[in-house]
Amino acid sequence: MADISKEIRDFREAERGEEVRGSMISLAEKVNKDGEDAIADVAAQVTKINNAITTANKAVTDANAATARANETLNHADEILDNATVQAANSAGSATTAKSWAVGGTDSRAGEDTDNSEYYSRQAKTSAGSAKNEADRAAQYSQIIAPGFYFDPAESALYIKAGVGVDFVVVDSVLYWKITV
């Protein structure tokens, strides 16, 4: 605010119309200039305030947009977490089922201890052993050549013509044969 004390003193001391008028004009000009400067300062402050409001509004808009994106991201993360939880539970169930079928011992299905890959592996090993024994036996039998017989009615005699891998034994007038391979 402008100091108008000089102008007021001049106005009080003015005695003639010209001095009075001059002091009033000087006072009015100083007050007017001070008012104009104040109005200009207020206008500048209003412009600054308006710019600050515009900047604040933009910041609020940007913050709202960022909040919306953050909420979308959070919702998406929740969906991913929910899906991951479901998948983890499914994986755990699948792991239990796989273990049940592989080796049993999970109590997740009836009869799993005799209906699993370990059980069938043992069965296959046993069957493979039996198959090998039968194959070895078949190989032995394949070496046998059935004997041919010839009966001579004139002599009432039975003759063996040929044969491999068999022997004949007579016990109490009964002819027995056995494989010797």
Number of strand segments = 4
**End-to-end separation:** 136 Å
| Biggest β-sheet description | 2 strands, antiparallel
Specify the overall morphology: rod-shaped
Instruction: Give helix % range.
Output: 55-70%
- Average pLDDT value? 87
List unreliable stretches of 5+ residues: none
The figure for the number of domains is: 2
How big is the Rg? 60 Å
| N to C succession of SSEs | HHHEEEE
Quaternary organisation of the protein chains: single chain
Helix tally? 3
The assigned structural class equals alpha+beta
Strand order of the largest sheet: 1-2
Strand content: 15-25%
What is shown here, in short?
This is Tail fiber protein. With 181 residues, the protein is of the alpha+beta class.
Report on the architecture of this protein.
By secondary structure, the protein is α+β, with helices and mostly antiparallel strands. The chain folds into two domains: 5-100; 143-181, no CATH class. Helices cover 67% and strands 15% of the residues. It contains three helices and four strands. The strands form two sheets. A two-stranded antiparallel ribbon has the order 1-2. A hairpin with a 2-residue loop joins strand 3 and strand 4 (174-179). Helix 1 packs antiparallel against helix 2 (17-102). It is rod-shaped, with a radius of gyration of 60 Å. It comes from Hungatella hominis.
List keywords for this structure.
2 domains; alpha+beta; 3 helices; two-stranded antiparallel ribbon
